[in-house]
Amino acid sequence: MQFNSATFAVFMLFVLVFYWFFLNHPKRLNTRNSFILCVSYLFYGWWDWRFLSLIVISSGVDFVVGLKLGEEEKDRRQRKIWLGLSLLTNLGMLGAFKYFNFFLESADVALQLFGLNAFDLRLQWILPVGISFYTFQTLSYTIDIYRGQLKPVSNPISFFAFVAFFPQLVAGPIERAKLLLPQFENHHKFNEKAVKSGLLLVLWGLFKKIVIADRLALYVNEAYMLPGADISGPIAITAIVFFTLQLYVDFSAYSEIAIGLARMLGFKLSTNFVRPLLANGFADLWARWHISLTTWFRDYIMLPLRKLPNGKRRRALNVMIVFFITGLWHGASWTFVLWGLVNGGFLLLFEPFVIRPLNQLPNPISRILRTGFTTIFMYGALVLFRAPDLNAAGVMYAGLFNWSDAAMGMNHQLLFSDNEWIFGWFLVIGLLSFEAWQEYRGKLIERFYEGPGLKRWLVAYVLVMATVILGSYGVYVLDKQFIYFQF
User: Fold this and answer.
1) With a cut of 50, which residues of the chain have pLDDT below it?
2) 290 part of the active site
3) Looking at 25, 188, 330, 412, which residue is catalytic?
């Protein structure tokens, strides 16, 4: 069930009415959480009900492990065994479904020495939607209990609802148990302002997804299907810029819709993006982009690596390990792995030798140069993220330098019309300008929710009409999947 579908609109309307009219009572917390759990399983099962078993298994194992870790506070050996069970179960399922075929194909050369063929050993199953997200979310629960940073919850319904909470189940934000789980154990009073602001956030997210991301995707998809000789400099530059904006808008739209839906139900989710396209360095970029994942890697991988013998001295190695895993988390492909390693290299080399020296220049020159250099390298690295394989990435990079008369003549061979090309760039420039306005005005959103409500209803009306009108040319697929569903 997609957020950008009529089916979900009906589903959410039913959830809101039943939730606030029949379950909004301090003595009905268990009933309320049972309802959330059921509708969350319905939401997830709409794709493929068979994969619900994985969420149930993950939730059940980690609930029991949490209780056992709480009971065995002084027995370190037993605690390690129980934590190991949680890690083995969750990472085992993730590895089997997402990475088994990848590692098998990578080892194909070695297998051939034994007369085996990797293709014959492939597992013929699809990747369960959201498995990378809910795996990390439930793992943070058991790890935090093991570290003594969290007490185990005794109510299984609350915990199962926390793992399966439908607004952020499929593509995050990846929530920590210490932030989200207590919200399932508290009564939520109806807050009209929160419901309205949540609805506006949902409408804004749908506008970004349907009008901006899906429109830019039309050009990007076509450009990446062109033969190498047909990709000219202008096509390559446009495809690279459009995909960066498409990826950011698509994913941030999902996060904003998730946050808005949760807010309408009285829950608060974490901010996942803070205008990353305006980052003034790679350290700043990763403090703004997919924040819930970045902080997860920091707390559960980077910090343990630093605590190893000589861990602080091996900072460069630790950074590359984290970014290798970051790339692999995004997809079982060498393009994603290389994308992660390239970003790790940028952080280690670009930051100290380019960004920091620029800090010595006066503002705004320093800020413009830092953001400009970060933009060029970030956009360029994302070719690896979008390309289906390394060869396709190489073709797109080569296109940047192809300004021959023959290649330039192919610019008009794309099905994307000149008007659509112009409108695409208009959307890109418009969105970046709006984000810059937010960046430098400060508290723009806070001021928006103050004062008369007429302006908010006007914005809601404009968003709805713009989404309907600009998304009705016959080139859109309303149920088009969000990009991060594949991870």
Assistant:
1) 472-479
2) no
3) 330
